[in-house]
Design brief:
81 residues; mainly alpha; 3 helices
Amino acid sequence: MQKYLKVKPGKPAKRGISRKQSTNPLLSRWTTPFEIPPFAKIEAKHFKPALETAFREHRDEIAKISANPAKPSFANTFVAL
C-alpha cells in the first residue's frame, strides 16, 4: 500500500484532515506506532464530529479545484482531487 500512497517508512502520511491536538482521538495526530488509530480511546460520540470535519474539508478541497481559473486538465483536476 505504501507504493500507492507514496509514503516513506517513518514519515507520516499526508491526510486531508489536519491532525491538530483535539479531545477527539479521530481528529488528533496519532502518536501510536505506525500511526495506528488509538482504538481504546475512540468512542461512538467521536465519529459524527470527525466525519463532519472530513466532509467539510473535502468540500473545501473540491471548491478550491473548481475555482481554479486555468483550463481543466488531468493535473489540475484529477491529480489535485
